[in-house]
Design brief:
Length: 246
């Protein structure tokens, strides 16, 4: 506003100058008048631009704050909030990255395994949520599952893409012996016929000295079965694989 007052003062001086030139002859007075009017117009344009710029800067400052305030609020300027840092475990992300070598200490190995345990626990909780869902041949949605449709649906929720058939899913992880089974492993069985062909699959939920439990989509729907207590599956067990690596 100070600049605007100064410019208005200059315009007033120029108008006074015009009046003073009126004593000269007509031709010379025209030249002076043209020059003076040009100066007045130029000053008027500058005044309008100055006022417009000042108003625009004031509006921006009111809405977004000054440049310094915007920098202070920027995520590039500020450090990570403690609440966010507590949620994002950067050390675990580093340890589990593909660039980390096998030379982990015992303490670090337990951290990585505990991370898998949390993932497997969440996966099993998700699987249990479908307990009682009806069996449907070729089904792979909560409207109805077959055995491989159920396992592929559950694992996909956690970023693991399994093959669609039980016969193919045994290739979706590292093969493991029955004595080394862990929760989250896939276990494979014959179908109705007892032979060497895979026809059924389930997810291990619990392992103990007597055997293991697994959740699967059977002909009776999604349920938990125990091995070797249920003879039907005892005589049909073929093998197991581990899609979630340690």
């Amino acid at each position: 506003m100070k600049h605007f007052a100064y410019i208005c003062g200059r315009i007033y001086d120029l108008i006074t100058e015009i009046k003073s030139h009126c004593i000269f002859n007509a031709s010379f007075k025209r030249i002076i008048m043209v020059k003076t009017i040009t100066k007045i117009l130029a000053c008027a344009v500058v005044a309008v631009m100055a006022v417009t710029t000042a108003n625009a800067q004031e509006l921006v400052a009111r809405k977004y704050g000054t440049v310094l305030e915007q920098l202070n609020q920027s995520s590039l300027y500020n450090r990570v909030e403690p609440e966010i840092a507590a949620i994002v475990d950067y050390e675990s992300m580093f340890l589990s990255s593909c660039f980390w070598s096998d030379g982990l200490s015992n303490g670090k190995e337990s951290d990585v395994n505990s991370g898998n345990e949390e993932l497997i626990a969440a996966l099993l909780d998700y699987a249990f949520a479908f307990e009682g869902t009806r069996y449907r041949m070729g089904g792979s949605t909560p409207k109805g599952f077959d055995c491989s449709g159920f396992t592929s649906y559950v694992f996909k929720k956690f970023g693991y893409e399994l093959n669609r058939t039980s016969r193919q899913q045994i290739n979706d992880g590292e093969l493991v012996e029955q004595e080394a089974l862990q929760p989250g492993d896939l276990v494979f069985f014959n179908g109705r016929a007892v032979n060497k062909n895979i026809g059924h699959v389930g997810i291990v939920t619990e392992v103990d000295s007597a055997g293991f439990s697994f959740i699967h989509a059977s002909s009776k729907g999604v349920r938990v079965s125990k091995y070797p207590e249920e003879r039907y599956y005892q005589v049909r067990y073929i093998g197991a694989c581990r899609p979630i690596k340690e």
